[in-house]
Each structure stands twice: as structure tokens, then as C-alpha cells.
């Protein structure tokens, strides 16, 4: 099945008073490039989530966004350093007695003391929330895959139309093939006559034999056969289940090479027009292939 490398999926899951939101977005890339973006307290899950992406995708740049609302995997708690506070209070009393000061120590004064209060993060429902996060990522990936497959189906439809058009042009080129060979032969004869300043004698069998051999080099049969073979390979590859983008890209490059050779062997206006049309279809296919996984 052909899959595009462009897709998007998202999922949200609630566990107790925590809300997990996951978004996965992918675009075309030569390799699989995963870029997770998540809160600091979830970084320990990064490699595990990357493996989930690797299990589902073969190519593409993938952005994985994770946001967490609520307590999350950790609950914050405030601790008081009672031993240190006791020392502060004792010193306040000593100062009061030593200098005969009046007044009481207020809560406002205590709140301004350094190092009395510390904030700690305590794990809360870690296993449950980790599982929920993994589930959200898996569901997001499934939705992304659906979009990539839908886009892949549209790419296949476009490829099929272009290959039908190429088949029609190749049929016309096959019918025109004898004309291309004759044109090449005549071009060689004209070139020889131009340099020798005289017409070739039909009895000059050796020269005519050489002309014939050179004319055969202008035959596009081999290029047409290979081009048909490349089209057949392209169709077969489209039906395979694995990642096929790189292979399709190679086949399209080979198609372009054969068409260039055909164009170089003929000066016929009609053939030139067909070659231009073939190149146009191949360029459009090459552009589309860049987005195939």
C-alpha cells in the first residue's frame, strides 16, 4: 500500500484530574527523523515514545507534541525545614531578650526567611499516566496513518493517469520508430556527402554498410523497451506493502534517462513533441514520488 509522508493525528486522554494531549505531524524527509516536544517531567518517556513512532513509520520528519494539564505525573508538595525554623525562632527570642525589644514574631516575618520552604515533586499515579500517554500516542499515530494512506491513494491515482498517458506516447513512438531510423541514416549520408562534396555511389557497399551500422545506433527500440520495463516495474512496486519511495524515485530517474536518449536520436518535430510530453509527465511523477514513504 502506498502511503504519503504527509499526515496529522491527535488524541486526548483524561486520567483522574490530569489531561494528556498528543499531536503527531509528519512531512516528507529522506529518512525517519523524529522530533519530540514534551514537558521536562516527561523526558524520561522520550525514547519509549520514539520507538512507538518507529514501529509505525519508515520515513518522514515527525513532530511529536505532548502537553500535560493537571497534576500530571508528579504532585508538588511544600515542605518546611522545622529544625531551621526552630533555630530562627530561638535567635529571635535571644535578640528580643538581649536588647529588651517588644513585639512578637509574625507569620509575615517567617514567610520571608530564606531556606525555610522547599517544593518537592512526588510521583503520583505514575504507571497509570504513563500507560495513558502511550495509548494517546498510539491513537494519534493510527489517525496519522489513515491520513497518510488516504493521501497515498490519491498519489497512486495520479501515477496511474500519468502512466496511461506515457503508454499512449510510447505506442506512437513505436509506430514512428522506422522513421526515426531512416532519419538518422539520411542524416549520416548527408553528413558524409557534405564532407566528401559528392553523392554516395550505391556501389560503394563498404561505405553504405558503415552508414547502415551507424543508423542502427539511432534506433530507439532498446530505449523504448527499457522505458516500458521501467513503467512495468513502477506499477509492480506500487502494489508492494513496504516503504517504496526510494525505489520509485530511482525508477523515475531511469525513465528520465531513457527519454533523454530518445530525444537525442531524432530531430523529428513530432518525436520531439512526444519527448517533451514524456519529460513533463516524468517530472510530475518525480515531484509526487518525493512524498511517498
TrEMBL record:
Endoribonuclease YicC-like C-terminal domain sequence ranges = 174-293
MF-aspect GO terms: hydrolase activity; RNA endonuclease activity
- Keyword check for Nuclease, yes or no: yes
Domain Endoribonuclease YicC-like N-terminal per the UniProt entry, residue ranges: 2-156
Question: Coiled-coil segments, which residues?
Answer: 119-176
Q: Which InterPro entries match?
A: YicC-like_C (IPR013551), YicC-like_N (IPR013527), YicC/YloC-like (IPR005229)
Read off the Pfam families from this record: YicC-like_C, YicC-like_N
Which cofactor(s) are needed, names only? a divalent metal cation
Q: Which UniProt keywords apply?
A: Coiled coil, Endonuclease, Hydrolase, Nuclease
Q: Which PANTHER family match?
A: UPF0701 PROTEIN YICC (PTHR30636:SF3)
The family this protein is said to belong to: Belongs to the YicC/YloC family.
Q: What is this protein called?
A: YicC family protein
Q: Per the UniProt entry, what species is this protein from, by scientific name?
A: Halobacillus locisalis
Amino acid at each position: 500500500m502506498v502511503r504519503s509522508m504527509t499526515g496529522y493525528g491527535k488524541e486526548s486522554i483524561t486520567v483522574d484530574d490530569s489531561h494528556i494531549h498528543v499531536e503527531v505531524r509528519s512531512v516528507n524527509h529522506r529518512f525517519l527523523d523524529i522530533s519530540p516536544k514534551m514537558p521536562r517531567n516527561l523526558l524520561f518517556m522520550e525514547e519509549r515514545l520514539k520507538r512507538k513512532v518507529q514501529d509505525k513509520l519508515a520515513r518522514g520528519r515527525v513532530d511529536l507534541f505532548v502537553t500535560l494539564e493537571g497534576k500530571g505525573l508528579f504532585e508538588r508538595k511544600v515542605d518546611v525545614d522545622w529544625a531551621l525554623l526552630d533555630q530562627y525562632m530561638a535567635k529571635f527570642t535571644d535578640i528580643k531578650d538581649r536588647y529588651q525589644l517588644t513585639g512578637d514574631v509574625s507569620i509575615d516575618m517567617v514567610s520571608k526567611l530564606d531556606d525555610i520552604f522547599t517544593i518537592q515533586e512526588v510521583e503520583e499515579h505514575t504507571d497509570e499516566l504513563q500507560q495513558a500517554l502511550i495509548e494517546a500516542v498510539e491513537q494519534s499515530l493510527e489517525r496519522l496513518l489513515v491520513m497518510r494512506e488516504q493521501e497515498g491513494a490519491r498519489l497512486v491515482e495520479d501515477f496511474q493517469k500519468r502512466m496511461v498517458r506515457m503508454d499512449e506516447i510510447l505506442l506512437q513512438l513505436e509506430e514512428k520508430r522506422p522513421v526515426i531510423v531512416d532519419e538518422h541514416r539520411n542524416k549520416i549520408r548527408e553528413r558524409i556527402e557534405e564532407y566528401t562534396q559528392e553523392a554516395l555511389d550505391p556501389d560503394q557497399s563498404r561505405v553504405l554498410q558503415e552508414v547502415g551500422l551507424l543508423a542502427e545506433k539511432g534506433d530507439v527500440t532498446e530505449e523504448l523497451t527499457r522505458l516500458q520495463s521501467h513503467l512495468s516495474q513502477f506499477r509492480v512496486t506500487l502494489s508492494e506493502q513496504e516503504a517504496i519511495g526510494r525505489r520509485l524515485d530511482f525508477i523515475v530517474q531511469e525513465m528520465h534517462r531513457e527519454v533523454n536518449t530518445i530525444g537525442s536520436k531524432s530531430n523529428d518535430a513530432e518525436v520531439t513533441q512526444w519527448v517533451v510530453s514524456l519529460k513533463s509527465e516524468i517530472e510530475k511523477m518525480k515531484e509526487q514520488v518525493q512524498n511517498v514513504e
